[in-house]
Amino acid sequence: MADTGPSRAVNGAGRPDRTLGSRQLAALLPDPSGARPAYRHLAQAIGELILDGRIALHVRLPAERELAAALDISRPTVTAVYDLLRESGYAHSRQGAGTWTALPEGRTPRGVTRLLGARDPVIDLARAAPALPHRALADALARVSPQLAEHVDTPGYHPYGLPQLRAAIAGRFTRRGLATVPEQVLVTSGAQHALTLVLGLLCGPGDRVLVENPSYPNALEALRRARLRAVPVPVTDAGWDTGTAESSLRQSAPRLAYLIPDFHNPTGCLMPAEARARILRAAQRSGTWLVVDETLTDLALDVPAPPPFAAHAAPGGAGQVITTGSMSKTHWAGLRIGWLRAPARLVTELAAQRAATDMGGSVLDQLLALDLLERSEELLPARLAQLRTQRAALTAALTEHLPHWTWQLPPGGLSLWADLGAPVAAALADRARDHGVRIEGGACFATDPGVFEHRLRIPYTAPPDTLREAVHRMAAALADGLTPSSGTRRPHWIA
Questions:
Q1: Which of 300, 328, 331, 452 has the most other CB atoms within 10 Å of its CB?
Q2: How far is CA 174 from CA 49, 167, 169, 401, in A?
Q3: Which CATH architecture has domain 134-376?
Q4: What is the pTM assigned to this prediction?
């Protein structure tokens, strides 16, 4: 039987669902011939993929016969796999209706656990986000309290965002070289919220979206949940292959492209100005909307902060560029304040979509964000100096304890993209937990299965002593001996 792409179905709970194709699932799984018993090995791998979010919940698994053919194993082996998944809570079935993915009682998806704080003595390197100095927060709260009192006599709903904050963000863009008015700004609950709103308005299931590979995991998950088809373009230690990006835009004509050109997450690369202009022209020719994530732009450690991506467009050529930003990386993620800049008409449509979900953000958080943004020239230099010190501590510790690892020193941003020299990232991340370090393997940042197993993203957002201790613990975990992660089947389907 032909293996079609994801299709709509209704599961036992009455939810509309997708069917995961047999070849698509096979591409995500390790070679079953490498372990015994094979059924237990495969069931464990599927459970891990569900926890990682790379297989969504409430998705119909392929028929046993089709998966057996795709994996080149016997049908009884696949039957045993599905039996074990049901027994362990990762799947449920109804006679004659199929088998769907599920989450076992008491288990938390790793996309959630990555955001949860780790308790001492665990060192958390899974999140690349800085803390806000206590004094800065206390001073800002004192300053905005009188302003908050002025708002309590109003309903407090601002679906576009607090007018003063919109004006401040517009002014920030203008000072950076991109003339902007408040009507072109929508305040959101973080940059991820902005991306989700854009995907919901501009894209439909099955649409192609150009993305960098590797890229920000939460953005990739948003694409998966919107049932969009990723068109990956590589980002290496040397940066972007602009010719490949132009070719992908021309041949695939994606509906949208999501880019992180400033201190790219996770590689740390900075896209050259010439490449920006070329990609802008190619996107304009293909009719592709560009969503440019500038959450890391201000974290320029060794170079001047770049101007807005859209400023590189020819006159009138920035009409299909949406720029997102956030307070999370420069100040504090706990504020949950982000924004997007787009044509005013599109901002109006996005605000209407936003009103259907949360109607507007917290007035207090927006007042705090406004206060902190207005004091960026006072606060940011200290932040950058701190990050340079922490980056130096991390690289020195890696050189001392793990000299065979390599990396390119990023000119800005919050993390290193380290090459371990062997495909042991997932195994090291698992072992590191036993040594009190939380970190994610490079596969979390991949658009395709089975890649970046030799990579780790290592943030330098913790104090120097903490970073040195984390490296010492990872070196101890590596010294215990690791088995390279089993090879996964490379995808032989087109996303």
A1: 331
A2: 44, 10, 9, 46
A3: 3-Layer(aba) Sandwich (3.40)
A4: 0.79
